[in-house]
Structures are given as C-alpha cells and as structure tokens.
Amino acid sequence: MKRFFSLLLLLAGTLAAQAQAPIPQRAEQRAKDKANSRVDASIDRGLDSAFNKTGRAIGGIFKKKDKSAGSSNSGGSNPAAAAGGQQKSGDARTVSGGSDFVPGGKVLFEDHFDRDRMGDFPAQWNTNGSGKVVTVSGESGKWLDVVHDCIVVPDIKGPLPENCTIEFDLFLRSESGRSTPFIQFGLSQVKNILKEDMFYKDRFFINLHRYTEEDGKTLEYGLGNDIIGNKSSFPLTSYVNKVLHVAMAVNKSRIRLYLDDNKVIDLPRALTDGMRNTFFLNNNAIIPASETGMLVGNLRIASADTDARSQLVKQLMEEGKAVTSDILFDVNSDRIKPASYAIINQFGEALQQTPSLKIRIVGHTDSDGDDAANLSLSQRRAAAVKTYITENYPVAGARIQTDGKGEAQPVAANTNADGKARNRRVEFIKL
Length: 431
What we know:
Blueprint: H1 2-19, H2 23-52, E1 57-58, H3 79-82, E2 106-111, E3 125-127, E4 131-134, E5 143-146, E6 150-154, E7 163-171, E8 182-188, E9 203-209, E10 218-223, E11 226-230, E12 243-251, E13 254-259, E14 262-267, E15 278-284, E16 286-287, E17 294-303, H4 308-319, E18 321-324, H5 341-353, E19 359-363, H6 371-392, E20 400-404, H7 417-423, E21 426-430
Helix pairs in contact: 4-5, 5-6
C-alpha cells in the first residue's frame, strides 16, 4: 500500500512540475509537437501522391497501410461492439438492387474483330503502341491483345453523345510465373492519342489490377491523375481466366459502371463535356512491366439520347408495333440477359396498367447457323419474353401470343456485325 501511495505522489509531482513550467517553454513544446504532426502529414501526402499517380504506376514496391477503423490481421471489426457493445436484434432483411443498365438503341461503333486477320492490329482502332487480334482457347470469337504501356481507342468520328452506353468484355488472363496487366479504361479529353499525352488532360478512369491476388486486388476510379475512390467488395479473383463483361452508362455528367450486371459505381457529377471526346483502354505502364497482354473483345458503343424503354411502349400504343434489338440473350440460347429486364418490364407494366391490352411477341435472328435451328431459337426467345412477363406481373398468359420468324425477315445485311445485331430483334405487336 505504501508503494502505491508513493507512486501516486511521484505522478502528482511530475504533473505539477509540467504545469509550473514557464509559459514560453510550454509554447515551444507545443510548437514542436505541431511541427512533427505537419511533417508526418506531409510524408503521408507524399506517399498518397505516389500511389495516386496512375500515369506511371509502381507495383510491388510499396503497400499502403490499411487505415480502416477496426481493421487488424486477426479479424474484422464488430460494428455493434464499436457502438457500445449492444447488438440490436430483429428480423433479417434482404436488400436487393438489381441491374438497371439499359443498352443504348442506336449503335455508333461495334467490333468483334471478325473482319480482321489474326496477328494484325484491328482496322477500326488506333493506338500509340501495339496490339494484335488473337483467339483464346475455350472462348468464342476474337480478341484484341494489347501490350504493356499501350493505349487503344476505337476510331469514332466526333465526341460521344451526352447519353450513351459502352460495353465490352475483358478476359482476365493469368499465366503461371508471368505478371498480369494493369488494366485501365475510361473517358478522356484527348482527341488524338498520338499527338497528346492523355495523363495530363481531363479524364475519368477505372483501374483493375492484381486480379489474381485476393489480398492485392484493386478496383479504383479517379479523375485526371488522382484516385478518388475504390471498391473492395467485387470478387475480381473469381474471374481469373474468365470473361468479365463491363458496361458503362453515360448521362451527361453522370457515369455508372456495371461489372457482370452488378452496379459498382454511380457518380452523378463526375464527367465534363470534354471527357466524351474519347473512350480509351490502356494496358497501363507499371514496374515491373506486365508480361501478359490485356485482352479486350466485343466492344459496343451506342447512343441513348432517347429513353428506349418509354419510347417503345409509346410506339406500341400509338403505332401498334414496337421493335427493339436491345433485348439480349445468351449466345444460341433463349436465356435472357439480366441487362434486358428493364426493357421488358416496361411492357409488363403496360399490360398490367391496361387490362384490355393484348400483344403478340415475335422473335428474329441473324443468318448465322442452320435455318431450322434459327427458326426454333426465335420462337423460344419470344416465349421466354412472355414467360418473364407472366412470372413477374399479374398478366394472364392468354393476353400474350408468341411467334418466331428465324432469319427469314432481315432488316439489314447479315454481312457485318452491325447488321446482324439489328436482325437479332424482338417485335411487340398490339392485337
């Protein structure tokens, strides 16, 4: 007990001595403390700047410390405990958002590299480096293989419209012992990548990097050369040596990013008019250089200046017929892609709100494949649209007829990708 009181007296004496120190001495100590804090902050800003410099990234040299609250190597944080240890009980709730992506209706650019020779750089693109058309074992179609430190852009005349959609596929290749690419894509003010340095111009970008590493995977987004945010929840590692479908919706200053129908980013005030000059893809420079190329395929850029969903229903009601090529299906299948649900929902709502309305749904295909198989496929696709409506809306099946014409009634030449896309359509006819 005596030892305890001795310690208390010693502590009290120390505090008293500090309190009695001359004011100038105490002020000097506070100034030193503030100076040290400023130095620490300056170092932090310097490190952040190095990481945010996306024009020339440095990989594998530094790792930023995880500053998230409650993070540790031994496990995650408990929000309830952080709030005071009281965890509220209640019924479990399910939150669902779904995908609201709707492809633009008027195609401005589409390329599947089916007209380019293997080993050549594609004719409808430009680059400041190199790339070649290749195939990937186990995957259909052709791909553009972009080398390290190389930007590629589709050759589109003029800027993109205020409202447009951009879709493409990435094959997240991984080869044993070889480093993966630093994938970057986005919108830029630069009009000619051969004459202007993109990294010093106004732009919006997405970074996908280290997708083979569960602890290192990166999904970032930024403006200019600065990273403004990141997402850690999307499972990039599950797409290794698989196809990742990317979709972007541009609505004036707003940008939305979807990865495999999952909305990942929605920024309402991110874009400027100048950024719509160029859409780019970049196998970004990194140290050490990536030994594996960036694989890009199936690019589609379309105008969305008119709301295709409401316009279609309006056309049906006023003209008795509406046609769309934006109801998409899996290849050679009647399985509807989730991105198409928003369009079909408009017809379901119209049928629900107008009990007297009856329609016929007619499917069409392009000319690829056997005539009889295409006829059957078109019929099954029309039936699939009907099934979706009747399963999601209180609409009697008797109010919807279905039919399929296969490839028999083309509206465009089947000699190129654009014509084929237009022929793969669904008609809604008012009865």
